[in-house]
Every structure is written in structure tokens, then in C-alpha cells.
Write a sequence for this structure.
């Protein structure tokens, strides 16, 4: 059952920006400007009792003065006036409200009281709230966004397979930009989580056809029981990757003054995640790296990781990381080794990794990838590049495209300057993820194997 | 005592490229071309018995035919002919040889024998060898490099404080490009390490005035006893950061087929590093991150980390990481808190981090940085930016420049797309390192505290 009451957060036909400002430096101005420039085609109503017109749009004194129905209200006003504005939204029949403003529960005391009061009012009118203390929503489908990050400061991602829900707007901004060319479906920064919570959002995204993987940053959970119930239901169908902040007592304290959340015991969370089939990321890079792999690659069978490279150092470190994570490397079949020995130059090293050395051409890669691609012992291809090595010709991109035909997941590793970034981008744009360090590629591989197991158990 | 016998690896007046080729795709062509384009002003002699001229330079049949002295020979020829060519270098009086070619110890058996034979010959003539199986040397001082990575594939770094010695050419390429705008002094990729080893190189770099921090990637050590003796002598004066690959049995096996090194027991290495005052990096990103901090920032007194941000999520994760690494956060003086309460807007959160919120301007950062900069409890400033947040004006760069005046180390954290990268670059160009994740900033902070302690003990 999709969360129908959340639909208008992502697909409103009309949006009111309550607190829209004439002053360019104000959040209420930036949000309106950004939405106008977004390509979103719904109606937009600036609300401000002191202005006639903002950015060429007629301005209304309150949402109640808007002559047509308003599906979504975005509130960016000082905290103390927000509850009464939520009440106006309720009266107007606007059931979906994003509260950008901070100054609530994260400050404690009377501010937390104001947040509670706001929720009470919302419940009375059947209004759902995302926030407060957040940057709101983004939907790549219709280009809607509620961000106070201007377009020249923050790139919006193309439409794609990752959805991200986050208590931290900061990590939100980073993910939006890192995912630029991988693409995103839906994005929600929900800050203090006074009402709409991760369980609601995951339930919604589970039914979103554009979402292939759900990435989550939380400091603490709202309704843990419902969260578990929803997650358990979703993970056999769509992967959930989660980053949990506030692992330590001091971190929890920091979380409390960020989103007013009690972070809870980390070990308890880990156990819960495991039980619910959630993949845990240990830091933000891991969260992105794992989401990228799950979004772009097929799942592996049980088996070994086959490595191909033109520079062996990173394979040594990758092997260390694989062993430490309990992943197998090498174990190539006799036939594979025979083929490689026959077809590759004699200076190539056929060890745990197939080291084509710095003299490697794309043709050498093609030979190695074909052998490993057909080797029944190999279930995942990890391909390392020193793109800087000049013998490696441009044909490598097409060779990698062909390597997808073996049907095995492929993860690449390459790091360097502008040329390497350009080549890596080409690979990612054709759906092959590239990681800058061997450890990060191995973490992604581990997640693919882990989710393959979760999927298997879930489908029993 | 500087290693005078190594001087000509970095400051030769003349270089012979033995195995220079007329064919553009050959390593021996790329190395010559790259050196010609480098800006290096010494004499360059291509050696190839089958060519009259390569890239406009007169070509000699052998190094013995060059009419003038040759300080440095770079050999890029099939392995089996290299020993006899080293002998010619000895006869010529060329005491410094870089062997780029692979196909030696890393293949085992007779190939390892060839490497041994080559070393015997070198010893006989007093020739020192870097390599084989490597990409050789780079000196930012005179622009010399021996790389087969063309300039359009691999950017060379500007002159700067990091020197890097590495058994892996791949990690070498990455470091050269990552350090582009931080800058490098000397670089050595030494592959199989048949002769010149890490102890020799560290001893040399200890006396190199351009080197402020020595970064090292090793799979196994050559002469561990001498290494320890040298490292113990150097670390009280210059920091050494090391990444050790081949931590696991399988990783060691991978190392053996990479550089022919026995990787040894990881725990033993860790104990040795600790005893010698070496800072250990756990992966390649850490190696670079730590080197960057040590290269650019002053050392902290004992004390607490002060955090300032306009988006608190990363501070929660940074706090977790600090606690896990035994670093203190916050603990601001009464006076600091009083000042901040008076001077900052009321919605700012004065917790473990000073959270200026998404509405922060550079003026708010200035207020917070001044208070923390003068707070006697704070010994390191960790400054987080959501550069995407549009209220944060361009003045922030100057504010950060002024913050250096407090004399405390500053580490920043910011991650995102083009605008964020541009702002981060500006900070790094004025000597303030920026990290993409809180954990990476915290690892750098930990290393600064660690090296401050090493320095203290060393100077007793």
C-alpha cells in the first residue's frame, strides 16, 4: 500500500512558499527563485503579507487568500509563528507541509514545546509535516525542489535509481551532488522528524517505480517498531542502506542539539538493522559507494572476486580488505589460467589478480575480462585502472561496455586527476561504478554479496 | 649526513633514456617525450642502436657512445638485456640508474635470478639502482621526471611540501595528481627495490629542505634494522606517514607477485612503526589526508577540538569519530560561550559544535572562529562548510585566512559538486586542508595530535 498521504509532497499541482521574501539573501527568496528555475510546471504562490509581487509572481498575504487549492506548503518563517501558519494550512485544506525553519526541538525547552504544539495542530487537520529544520524535498521526475541552495551553488542530479532520505540537510546536499550523473529519484531531508518519519518515507519509496535503492541517514529513529516492520517488508524487494550517526555518548549529545533526537544505543541499532535486512554503512562515503553499486549493478552469485589490473599495488590492498571482510579472491579455473597464459604477453602476472602491467592495452583487458567473465568460479569482476598509463588506449571504454555482457557485477577502481576523472565518468555513465580506492570498491562488493543473501532469504 | 650517492637521481646534469623508441606507443618513447616536455634543463640522450634520431634528438647506439658524462640512466628494455646494460652504465661511470622495466623478481624463478645478477653487477661498479618494475623519479625543483604517463594523462604537481616514496607506481600516479595544488618536493616509485630502499630514501629526504613530510607506501621492507635506525632518527625532525600493504596472508601473496616482496607479519610492522615514531595510515586516502595535514598545518598543543559549522550532521559523525579515536571535542570556556551567546543570532546552537545553521554568513563564522581561536581550551579548529547554503557569502575565504592568525591548526570539511570543489581549492591553496567527510578530517586531526606527541618525546 503506497503512502497516498505523502504523494503530494512529491507530485503537488501547486506549491505555496510561505515566507517568500523580496530580499535576495533570505532563504524565503532563494527557495522561491530556485523553484522558479527548476523546471517544475505546477502553480507557485509566494505568501508574504508585506509584498505585492516577488520575482514576477503575485504575492498573497496568507495561504487562506490563495484563490485556488494548494497541494503543498513550504514554510520558511521564524519558528514562533510556524504553528499558527500550519493551522492556516489546515484550514485551507493543504495536507502537505514542509517546514524548513529551524529553532524547534533542537534548542530544547519552550522551543520543543512549540514543535509539539505544531504537530498537535497538524494532526487536528490531517496535515502531514516534513521537517522542521530541514531542506525539504526533491523529485527528479517533475523537478520540484524546496532547497535554499541556489542552482549555481548546488547541482541537482539527473533522474536515476537512488533515493535518499536524511535527517541531515548537509549530507543531503553532498549526496545530491555526488549522485549528479548516477541520478536520483526522490530525496527528502526531514530534519527533526516531527511527523513524517523514515518508516513512512521508506514505505512510500518502496512503491516508487523510479527508486531502485533507498539510502538513509538517521541520528535516531521515530517509531522503531513500525520502522522494523516496514524495513523487513521492503528489504527483500529493494535494498535499504543506512548510516547511523550518534554511535557514541558524545555523538548522541551532538545529535540531540542537531535534530533533537535521542540517538539510542548503537549496538541495538546494529542488531535491528541486521534483523531487518538493512545494509549498514559506516560513514557517508560508504553510504554513497554502496548505494551506487546496488543501484547500477546486478547481484552476484556466491563465488570469488576476479581482479584485473594494469598496476598491482591497489590489488594488494584490495586483497587485504577482501580477506578482512570474508570475501574470496582469485581461485581461477585451470582453463582460465591456460587461456590467459596462451593469450597474454609473458610479462603479465597471473596471481590473485591478473596483472597486465603498465604496458597493458585495452586488448589485454578484453582477453582477461573474457576469461574471468566466463570462469564459473568468478562471480564478480573488480577491474582496476591506471588510466594515466599511456599504453592503455581509449578503446578501454568499449571493452568495458562489452564486459557487461558476461552478466556479472562489475566494480572498478581508479584515482587521479582530470583525465582519470573523465574516464571514470564515462564508465559510470554507462552504469559501471568506479571507486577511488580499493577499500571503497571492496566495501561495495561486500554489500552486493550481502544484499544477494538478504534477497535470497527474503524470497524463501 | 645526506645520501650523496642519491643526489644525481634527483639533480642529474644529463640523462640517458636507454630503450628510447621511435614508436609513440612504446614506454621508451613516452618517457623521452614526457621528459622533453617537462621543463627539465639538463642534457637528454636517447639510446637505441636502431635509430639515428628520436623526437629531434641525436640517438646513440649505447650509453658508452655518448661523448659526455651521463649522470642518470633510465632503462626501459626487456628484462633479460637489462643486466648487461647496467654493466655498460658502470663502465661509462654513470652511478645512478632507474630501471623502469618489469619482468624480474615479481615473476619468481629465473627472473628473480636476473634481478640478483643485475644487483651484483651494479655493486661491482658502485652503481645505485632504483627499481626495477617502477615508474621512477620526479623532482619538482628541476621538473625532472621518468614517467611513462604522458602529461595529458597525468598532471604533475607544483612544488610543495610532500615527498612520496612508493613501491606501487599506481598509488604513485594517484598521489602525484591528488597533490597537484598542495605540491610535492620529491617522488620515488621504487618497485621491486633491488638496491636503493626506503631507508636510503628517507635518509635523503630528511635532508631535503623542500620536504616537510615523508609519505611512504610499502609492501615489505628491505633492511628492517637499518630502516628502524633511520626512521627513529628522522621522525623527531620530520613526520613519516606510512601505508603498509599485505596485511593478510593473501595480501602478502598478492604483494609477492607484485614487487616480489615478502610482506611479513602486520602486527610486527605496526609495533615497529609505533616504536620508530611513524604515523600509520590504514588506506591510501588516509595516507594522503594525513600527509596533507602535516604538510600544511602547525601542530596542536594538548587540548580539545573546537567545531564550527553551518550544518550539524557531519559534526555528529565527527564527534563519534573523535570519541572513538580518543580526541576531545568542545569544552569551551565560560567566556567563549558568553561571547557567542551575545554576538550570534539566537537560533544558533552552542553545543559540542557551534552550529551557525543554514542561515550562517561569513560574519557569523568570523565571530565563532575568533571566540574559539582565543579559547585556551581549544587547540585545533575543525571548520565545516555547507558551501551550497546560499546565505554563506564569498567573504568566507578571507575570514578563513584571518583565522590562521590564531596560530591553531585548522582542518576543514566540505563535500559536494563544482562550487564546493572550487571553494575548497581556494582554502587549500592558502594552506588550509579540506576533507570530504568528517571521519577523514578527524583522522587528520588525530595524526596532528599524534605527531605533536612524537615531536615532544623526540626532542627531550
Amino acid at each position: 500500500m503506497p503512502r497516498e498521504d505523502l504523494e503530494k509532497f512529491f507530485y503537488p499541482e501547486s506549491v505555496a512558499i510561505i515566507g517568500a521574501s523580496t530580499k535576495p539573501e533570505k532563504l524565503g527568496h532563494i527557495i522561491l527563485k530556485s523553484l522558479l528555475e527548476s523546471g517544475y510546471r505546477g502553480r507557485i504562490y509566494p505568501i508574504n503579507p508585506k509584498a505585492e509581487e516577488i520575482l514576477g509572481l503575485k504575492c498573497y498575504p496568507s495561504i487562506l487568500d490563495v484563490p485556488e487549492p494548494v497541494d503543498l506548503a513550504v514554510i520558511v518563517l521564524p519558528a514562533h509563528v510556524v504553528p499558527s501558519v500550519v493551522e492556516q494550512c489546515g484550514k485551507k485544506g493543504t495536507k502537505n507541509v514542509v517546514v524548513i525553519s529551524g529553532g524547534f526541538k533542537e534548542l530544547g525547552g519552550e522551543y520543543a514545546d512549540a514543535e509539539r504544539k505544531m504537530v498537535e495542530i497538524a494532526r487536528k487537520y490531517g496535515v502531514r509535516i516534513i521537517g522542521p529544520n530541514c531542506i525539504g524535498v526533491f523529485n527528479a521526475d517533475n523537478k520540484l525542489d524546496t532547497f535554499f541552495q541556489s542552482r549555481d551553488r548546488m547541482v541537482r542530479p539527473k533522474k536515476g535509481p537512488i533515493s535518499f532520505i536524511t535527517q541531515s540537510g548537509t549530507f543531503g546536499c553532498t549526496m545530491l551532488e555526488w549522485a549528479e550523473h548516477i541520478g536520483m529519484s526522490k530525496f527528502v531531508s526531514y530534519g527533526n522528524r516531527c511527523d513524517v518519519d523514515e518508516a513512512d518515507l521508506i514505505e512510500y519509496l518502496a512503491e516508487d517505480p523510479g527508486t531502485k535503492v533507498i539510502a538513509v541517514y538517521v541520528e535516531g529513529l521515530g517509531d522503531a517498531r513500525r520502522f522494523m516492520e516496514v524495513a523487513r517488508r521492503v528489504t527483500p524487494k529493494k535494498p535499504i542502506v543506512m548510516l547511523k550517526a550518534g554511535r557514541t555518548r558524545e555523538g548522541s549529545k551532538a545529535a540531540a542539539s542537531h535534530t533533537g533526537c535521542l540517538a539510542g544505543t548503537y549496538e541495538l541499532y546494529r542488531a535491528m538493522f541486521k534483523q531487518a535486512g538493512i545494509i549498514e554503512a559506516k560513514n557517508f562515503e560508504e553510504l554513497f559507494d554502496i548505494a551506487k553499486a546496488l543501484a547500477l549493478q546486478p547481484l552476484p552469485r556466491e563465488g570469488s572476486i576476479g581482479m584485473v589490473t594494469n598496476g598491482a599495488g591497489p590489488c594488494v590492498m584490495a586483497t587485504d580488505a577482501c580477506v578482512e571482510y570474508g570475501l574470496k579472491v582469485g581461485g581461477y579455473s585451470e582453463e582460465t589460467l591456460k587461456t590467459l597464459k596462451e593469450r597474454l604477453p609473458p610479462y603479465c602476472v597471473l596471481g590473485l589478480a591478473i596483472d597486465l602491467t603498465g604496458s597493458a592495452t585495452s586488448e589485454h583487458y578484453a582477453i582477461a575480462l573474457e576469461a574471468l567473465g566466463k570462469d564459473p568460479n568468478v562471480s564478480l569482476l573488480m577491474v582496476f585502472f591506471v588510466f594515466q598509463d599511456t599504453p592503455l588506449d581509449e578503446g578501454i571504454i568499449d571493452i568495458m561496455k562489452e564486459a557487461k555482457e558476461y552478466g556479472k557485477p562489475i566494480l572498478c577502481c581508479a584515482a587521479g586527476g582530470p583525465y582519470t576523472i573523465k574516464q571514470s565518468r564515462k564508465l559510470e555513465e554507462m552504469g559501471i561504478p568506479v571507486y577511488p580506492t580499493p577499500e571503497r570498491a571492496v566495501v561495495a562488493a561486500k554489500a552486493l554479496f550481502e544484499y544477494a543473501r538478504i534477497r535470497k532469504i527474503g524470497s524463501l
Remarks:
- Residues 438-458 of chain B form the longest helix (21 residues).
- Chain B has a mean pLDDT of 95.
